[in-house]
Design goal:
single chain, 292 residues, alpha/beta, seven-stranded parallel sheet, two-stranded parallel ribbon, 18% strand
């Protein structure tokens, strides 16, 4: 296939582009910046809200671009987080209408479910409350419009991506290696997670598997609390995990952003498993053993 990817220079995008090439697919990258050659991309096209996106001769679009959610959630930051997802997704869908692509994969997040405690969350579970839930709901609503134009649309609700050289893991590794590892808050909140190799493989699987539509929980099969996450990482690094960061301190330090750490989403990959997707790292031990 000929596959267009936004956010192709990011952690997931660059890994997916390389994987697509290894499978014989051809990747076109979309960029808001200088349109120079990008790794693993056959060509690069501009991505701008000012003009229709050139999707000619492409079979599929994978939309990964968006304002990072990490950072102080000021009113302006919140506006950018929402607008970057809502407006660009809408623009891409409008640009695709009747122009060739028959597949549209759009990133989303398990934050869609809000703070749900120990409730098992499959793809049919309703949305929750809170800022990230609202963002995901708006984002997915724009992505679903593609289906009205006969385009197969999937929204991949992604958990924490574990990668050796990106995301949260390098910082966690440094903290735990110094012996300061420990649970966050009460530690019983569930952390939906997935290894980088698996999230890239799941995107490729969704591109190639016509039975996948709608929301897909892009998380590993093993359900994991913050406490279990802490203990497993400590074991992998052969370091103690005796520290504990109180909830009030996290909220004081991070404000509303603390919801990423303290809220619980026990998401399970029902659709991926039922359609036959095989995880490279289905357990946290396997993931950490690979990363360390």
């Amino acid at each position: 296939m000929k596959i267009g990817i936004t956010g192709v220079t990011g952690l997931i995008g660059s890994t997916l582009a390389a994987l697509c090439n290894s499978r014989g697919h051809q990747v076109t990258g979309f960029s808001r910046g200088v349109h120079k050659k990008l790794p693993s991309c056959h060509d690069v096209r501009p991505l701008s809200l000012e003009h229709p996106v050139d999707v000619s001769a492409l079979d599929a679009i994978v939309h990964l671009a968006g304002e990072p959610v990490i950072g102080l959630w000021t009113s302006e930051k919140r506006r950018r987080i929402v607008a970057s997802r809502r407006d660009t997704t809408r623009h891409l869908v409008q640009s695709m209408e009747g122009k060739g692509p028959t597949i549209f994969l759009c990133a989303s997040g398990t934050g869609y479910y809000g703070n749900r405690g120990a409730e098992k969350l499959i793809e049919t579970a309703g949305s929750g409350s809170g800022f990230l839930a609202e963002v995901a709901e708006v984002w997915e609503a724009e992505a679903r419009v593609a289906a009205e134009h006969g385009i197969r649309s999937c929204q991949l609700r992604t958990g924490m991506v574990l990668a050796k050289n990106g995301g949260a893991f390098p910082l966690l590794r440094r903290i735990f290696s110094l012996g300061f590892g420990g649970k966050m808050g009460h530690g019983q909140q569930y952390i939906p997670w997935i290894h980088l190799a698996d999230i890239a493989a799941l995107y490729l699987y969704a591109l190639e598997n016509k039975t996948l539509t709608g929301p897909v929980n892009a998380v590993a099969p093993e359900e994991c609390t913050n406490l279990a996450f802490t203990q497993t990482l400590g074991t992998a690094l052969h370091r103690p995990t005796v520290f504990s960061v109180p909830e009030f301190l996290i909220k004081t330090a991070l404000g509303d952003l603390s919801s990423i750490i303290l809220e619980s989403q026990r998401a399970v990959p029902k659709k991926a498993e039922e359609t036959g997707f095989a995880f490279h790292h289905p357990t946290l031990k396997s993931a950490f053993d690979d990363l360390v």
